[in-house]
Amino acid sequence: MEQKFAGEGLREWESPLYLEALHQFDRVAELIGLDENIAERLRVPQRSIVVTFPYRKDDYSDVESLFGYRVQHLLTMGPTKGGIRYAPDVNLGEVAALAMLMTWKCAIVGLPFGGAKGGVRVDPLALSRSETQRVTRRYTAEIINFIGPNKDIPAPDMGTDEQVMAWIMDTYSQQVGHSEPAVVTGKPPALGGSVARREATGRGLVSLLPMAAQQAGMDLDGACVSVHGFGNVGRYAALAAQQLGTRVVAISDISGGVHNGKGLDVEDAMAYVDKHRTLEGFTGGGDRITNAELLTIDCDVLMPCATGGVVTGDNAGDIKAKIIMEGANGPTTLAADEILNERGVLVVPDILANAGGVTVSYFEWVQDLQNYFWSESEIVGRLREIMSRAFDEVLSVATKHETDLRTAALIRGIRKVADAKLARGVFP
Fold it and tell me: How much is the pTM?
């Protein structure tokens, strides 16, 4: 299917990740015979904003300018929802791709949101706490007319956390003249955040592991797990996997990784990162390895939880894991998917596997709007129910169409969005 773009002035969308997302969409749209008019609307975001803004360094003599982005892929389903990431390589194409994937993700688990994503092109590790606050507040001010509890609700992503969300909420609240906790999710519980939001993506990921293992014919007791990326998603996925009875034998972050075939103490690793910011220098009784080595290390389950495009056509043939649980957004390329499917590796795709974060974000948003908060057991129970139901529904589609889980998940998500588009019609 020929790819079309809404305008020649938007060529930055043609980033590798955006083209990967488009290829996935076009393949499934053709497979299900999606109406071409609907397909054309869903290939490009409905709204995109690019901002540049200054911020002062700590010595107040240097002023630097940064690029910021916010993309809303789909407004049909309700307000848009998606994280904000701080990273040196953030660009419009990446953010647009992630917004598109968020649309399918929300549809798959049945949330009343369209997909969105945002970011600032900056290295968060190079910023002090006060510099991070100034960047966050100025970025919020630049996009303030773009977001809101009934418009677009940001959340944490790579390079951001609950403190960044607190600063966004405070900045927005100062501008509208009253406290508005529902403008973001992933906040500290003291400001209306959900008690289980921080670990929701990792916990939701691992909640699907027993079902995935059953499909792969694997016994999880003592199974070896490797986690690529030990940020907010990876650390809680590793912890939940360990609590499930598996052995976490390898973890890594931007500084490299560590491998111990007997199993690592995940809580020790978490405490080390809390103190030192990265895993640099941590051994856990094992050996230091690179991020690339971790992906192909001998294990039963691989969880890529860092960034996109790490499992490629070059390394997919060397991956020894029987199951891949995608905690990151877009970690597997199309070329790698083909190789993994041919080898019989079960891939639980990102748009299903890491949907726990946006699901608990939805819970938080609902609680903020109602000013009525649920217990942790209620939140965890509802999360498991939604994730399990979504897995069963995607598996049913995969069985019917005799296809892999990624294609099945996309079929389910795209069909739900297309039905909503058709029901609303075109204005005027």
Answer: 0.91
